[in-house]
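Pipeline run #58 for the internal structure catalog. This entry was flagged by the ingest filter as a single-chain record with no existing model, so it goes straight to prediction. Upstream metadata was stripped on purpose; only the residue string is passed forward. Reviewer on rotation: M.T. Logging verbosity set to normal.
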Amino acid sequence: MRRDSIRTFFEASPTARLLRSDHAPLILDFLHRVFKSGELISIGQTDLRTRLTVYQEEIHETEPNLLAGPPERYLTQWSDAGWLQRFLEAVSIEPQFQLTRYAEEAIQFVDAAVTRGSNLVGTESRLRLVIDTLEDIVRGASANPDRRLEYLRAQRALIDAEIHAIESGKSVQVYRPAQIRERFQTAVDLLRALQSDFRAVEERFQSIAREVQQLQASGNDSRGRILGHALDSEDLLKQQDEGISFFAFVSFLFSPNQQAILRKNIEEIQRLSALADQHESLARIRRMVPSLLAEAEKVMRTTARLSGTLRRLLDARAAAHRFRLASVLRDIRQHALRLRGSGEVQSIQLIVDAEAEIGSAMSRTFWVPPLDFDQKQLTEQVIDPRHAQAMATAFARLQRLDMRKLREHIREATLLGHSETLANLLNRWPLTGGVVELLGYLQIAHDDSHNIDPTRIDRINILQPRGRASVLQVSIPRIVFHPKATTREMATKPR
């Protein structure tokens, strides 16, 4: 049984196909750079294609034969292979891409294998976590009130002893720096795994939506049966282990009290001297709450689409049109099957009877004279392929102004409820895109109704990009970013 399961995994799993791909190092590096390092849940098709083009140019400087095809072909191949999911959102005018759970599993496996030698191996903290978890299971699974009281009295005795020791002047026992780093690394690893689990939960909801839409499009079942199947499937998912765990997670995370406690603990973590060199992990923990909220909201939007499908099923008129269309398609299919065995067919005629369109006479526009166009002599334009390629390369290398990242800096600076000036914010996150990035902050301050004081002037020093050694000093009105400022729709959600 074990051998068959492993063989099936290597033959059929998209995770195994990604790890065994010839371009696996490049694919995993690109996906990790875009989605994980860039902290994006989804990305538009144009933006993803541009980033892949820049990544290909970077590779071709040393290895011109790798990933030599057009970016669109690779995005299509990766979507067909099950590593990227292509979908449409109501708030977007172009297709969006996100990682599938198979790509998440491959990235998590490779990341753990690569960083295993450099990261701290937390044996003591992991053992303590296992022991505490087992103890919590035994305590939570027991309905015996005597055992519960015995545990609570033991905990109270330990707490009373610690309080008495502190009040009597004894030294407080604290974690050693190694123990702090070990437990912190365990928490970061668990957080990284948690962020990868959302794709599996979301795909379970999407599978339910696809089943409902297939039953709806077939026209063979009644509305009542389709609706019953959808409701039963959704209830079944909520009753399964994954559904129960996810909805309990959402209830816990969206609690204002729990968010306040979590933010306070994160603030205390930032001040620990033992973790001063853990810059990347501290940044991940600092962005933990907004990142998890965004992940949970995206899964909840998937459930909202399923609810929208159910509402459309309840529309009697739409159901009648779907049933009629399904009947017509079924008749066409039956006629085509009968014609298939009757030899060569000279001609096929299809007559569609459509309802008459009724228009209002008042809807006709007044007569206007036709437009006069100037006559121009057309000349042939010759395009230089080398000049076009150079212009395309220069355009692809333009630095992108990431407004979401700038808003994320503002949100992190005002996370504790304090206002922050733009000058102090730039001391924490220096400008990397020159004057254009400074203009982005000014635009955000205007659009999101932050405070702009023209009576007070701040001078900002900007290091010129592209290796220039000169410093440009810019005078701007004082800008003060406030927490919970009004923002445009979808602007405050991290991607």
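catalog note: Residues 2-115 form a domain with the Arc Repressor Mutant, subunit A fold (CATH 1.10.10).
catalog note: The beta strands are 43-44, 84-87, 96-99, 420-421, 451-463, 471-481.
status: ready for reviewer M.T.
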